[in-house]
Amino acid sequence: MHTQHNIKTILLFLVLLCSSLSGCSYDTSASNELKRYIHRDMSIDDYKYIEALLKARADPDIVANANEETLLHIAASHHQTEIVQLTLKHGANINAVTGYYSGNNATPLTFALRKGHVQIVRILLEAGASLEAIETAPYPIATAAKHGNMEAFKMVLAKKPKLDYKDDYYTPLQEAAINGHDKIASLLLSSGANVDFMTDVRACTPLNYAAEYGHLEVTKILLAAGANVDARCVNTQQTPLIFAAERGHSEIVRALIEAKADVSLRSNDTLIDNDGDLAIWDAAREGHLEIVQSLLTAGADANKLVTGFIDDGSGSSAQYNTAGIALERGHSNVVSFLEQAGYKPQKSDVNIKKSN
Q1: How far is CA 332 from CA 24, 231, 335, 337, 342, in A?
Q2: pLDDT tens for residues 29-74?
Q3: Residue 319: which of 349, 345, 344 has the closest Cα?
Q4: Confidence of residue 15 (pLDDT cuts 50, 70, 90)
Q5: Range name among 14-18, 79-83, 174-178 with the lowest pLDDT average
Q6: Would you give the DSSP letter of residue 218?
Q7: CB of 260 within 8 A of CB of 299?
Q8: For every residue of 65-132, which 3-state class applies, written as one string?
Q9: Domain layout of the chain by residue ranges
């Protein structure tokens, strides 16, 4: 322990000596020692040592590791409040972005929001952290909505950021829907977020996502706010009902049916049929008996034939009705229910070759 302290003292003396002979620019020796120290000691809890290095004109924005994190990134991530303040005092770039890893870049504010470090979020916002997306670091309001810390979210929301934007990011309402944060969804809607807004790339509405990921309360909130119950994803044309039926979210299926969802709409997703799928086909394929029952009661056509390719390598196809799909997949309880309701399994080869 004493040996480590003595080494630090000697290194610091040498750094200060070198920096005293330098001009006003950042000192190379001090900067390299700061990089070495924070790369080795990720907890960076030696405040006085870091302070001395910064006073010796160490570059506060020197990249510390392979992820291109700076001292401010690491301090924000590790809840080192005093070091965050110290680093900002010495001119650190508050909007510095990391390298591209774990799916996107990140700013110090991104790290603080991910970890729920409320005090650091407050410090960074008061110091002028950007509310915009920077490179591929997402919008802070979307990060806050995703991770669900209500206090941190309210801090960002109070800065009046954009809530709807046409970029390659989820909007905050989409993030709240995906992650099931119903209170955050309510706050976003009351703050003016568009209930049906979708970004250019994340091209499904919040209701589509809530239904897909099984978040009943968010689904109800969005429906109460006037969400389009039959909204389609741009690429697959899937509706909230088709998502919920396929994933087995029976309560959401009932909520959507009560909101007058159209049970006859088809996606252009081709898990079953080359021309797109119906919600009742997806439910039968996955063996979701309760959902098949709900859809049939709501008027879904169980006799409608689906053309699907037989998975035997021949490239030929067959036609099935809903009971036929369930029989093919071995869901005897669904078959039994449909037979009792008057829908016998149907399957007929139609000898259509699968296109390449």
Answers
A1: 80, 33, 5, 9, 15
A2: 999 999 988 876 556 678 899 999 999 999 999 988 888 899 999 9
A3: 349
A4: very low
A5: 14-18
A6: H
A7: no
A8: CCCCCCHHHHHHHCCCHHHHHHHHHCCCCCCCCCCCECCECCCHHHHHHHHCCHHHHHHHHHCCCCCC
A9: 266-356
Q: What distance in Å separates the CA atoms of residue 253 and residue 291, rounded to the nearest whole number? A: 7
- Give the whole-angstrom CA distance, residue 295 versus residue 173: 28
- Residue 160: name the closest of 183, 182, 191, 138 by CA: 191
Q: What is the rounded average pLDDT of the residues 267-285? A: 78
Tokens representing 20 are: 């005293």
What is the CATH T-level fold of the domain 266-356, as seen in this structure?
1.25.40
Q: Could you tell me the end-to-end alpha-carbon distance of the chain, in angstroms, rounded to an integer?
A: 69
- Report the residue count for the chain: 356
Q: Can you name the residues that pair with 214 across neighbouring β-strands? A: none
Measured between alpha carbons, how far is 119 from 101 in angstroms, rounded to an integer?
26
CA distances for 143 relative to 19, 104, 114, 185, 252, angstroms: 40, 12, 7, 13, 26
Q: What type of residue is 325? A: I
Rama region for 237: left / alpha / beta (φ>0; ψ in -120 to 50; rest): left
Integer Cα distance of 323 and 345 in angstroms: 4
Distance CA(125)–CA(152), nearest Å, equals 10
- Nearest Cα neighbor of 144 from 179, 168, 102 is 179
Alpha carbon 183 to its chain's center? 17
Type of residue found at 305: L
